[in-house]
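This protein record is not my work; I was only asked to verify it. The record follows directly below this note.
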Amino acid sequence: MRLGTILCVALALCGLSTPPQRKRDAWPSGFVLAKHLYFDFGPPFDFYELYIVQRTQRGTSLERITLTPPGDACIAPARVDVASAMLKETVAEILGPRNACTVPVSELSARPKPCKNCMRFSGADVVIQVRCGAETRSAQSDILGQYLYGTANNAPQGALWTMQLLKRLDEAVGPGPEDRRIFPLPPSPRPSVNRPRSEVLRELAAGRFDYLFRGDPEKPSSLYKAAQKVPPAPTVRLVRSLPFAPLAAPMPTYPPIARLAHIEGAVTFRAKIGPGGHATGLAFVSGNPLLRYAVKKAVAGWSFPGKDASKSFEATIAFAPNCPR
């Protein structure tokens, strides 16, 4: 009995004296990638993107938020586009090949060496924030890429890692601003995102991600708020129709090319009323050529009383883009 008691005490003492095991390094549970993309043609000339990748109970979620500054107050207002996807890989596998949480914080504060003789007209500035347990680490993405690949003095390798990471993310959620039309058609007059639909958007509106774009011309929170303003819709109306008015007069659709060119004004025309009460023999008196085809197409659907058959009339239709001044 006494021997057993001695053994138990000895084992307990040995257990207390055993040095604690070294805490294992945390692996990334998520990251935020912030990209400011700029072109030497536009407007708009800049695009701001946030990629939020995080571990969930179902796997790894990706949400990409693209913020576009207003290129034109009338036809290209500020907008917010959201795309999301579920990824098969873990967060660590997406970042790979080494543990991003083991990179010394002091090394992450470094800045890439600027190219003295390079002229940059188009490009992208990318910052990445990695969540490591209870802390987060931020760095220029090519700096992190250099250390993940073990090539601290090889800037092109870090840039290649950034490009490959962005390509992987864009493949999951679809094309980004680089693949948009240079001259997009005017959007419908409604906000692109009229309310925060997710926690990420609520954080965006509150300025949670603004610090990732330090030194850039715009801040994500400001662009989000600007995108909530509904631009005025263009109007097309019948100003006059003499000596009599039609029973039904569907208005033309404002031609997109005319809106892009900021063309507005009145189109005046003369026509006759056919036996069936429809307008025929339309001849233009005045008006921009880019507006005339839309008028001709719409007037073909007008109708008049049968008693006015064979009579002539003159009408004016006004196009107004209602652009903010």
Remarks:
- The chain is about 25% helix and 25% strand.
- The CA atoms of residues 194 and 237 lie 28 Å apart.
